[in-house]
Give the backbone structure.
Amino acid sequence: DVQLQASGGGLVQPGGSLTLSCVVSGLIVRNYYVKWIRQVPGKGPEWVSTINSNGVDTSYAVSVRGRFTVSRDDTKNTVYLQMKNLKPEDTAMYLCEIYGYRGQGTLVTVSS
């Protein structure tokens, strides 16, 4: 049974930082691409970032490049998304995806 548990979201002021975690069970993360996706109510999902199975190659949406960093801890089977200089337009539910499976997500709200 594959499960993904995202956490770390919350309310933060513009310019602030948060680090999201995605704990995966049922699959070994180092064997797969893992994606972060975000979704705002009424809009389609937006791809945010991907970390390759090699744990080295990463890619980012233009809107977050230079502010977000994706990483992985194989000992914890966990993928992280470090977010800095957050903007109100980053407000969304953030979900992780592996091999077609998605977790329930964690809500990030950027507001003063």
Q: What stands out?
A: The mean pLDDT is 96. The first strand starts at residue 3 and ends at 7. The CA atoms of residues 91 and 109 lie 5 Å apart. The radius of gyration is 13 Å.
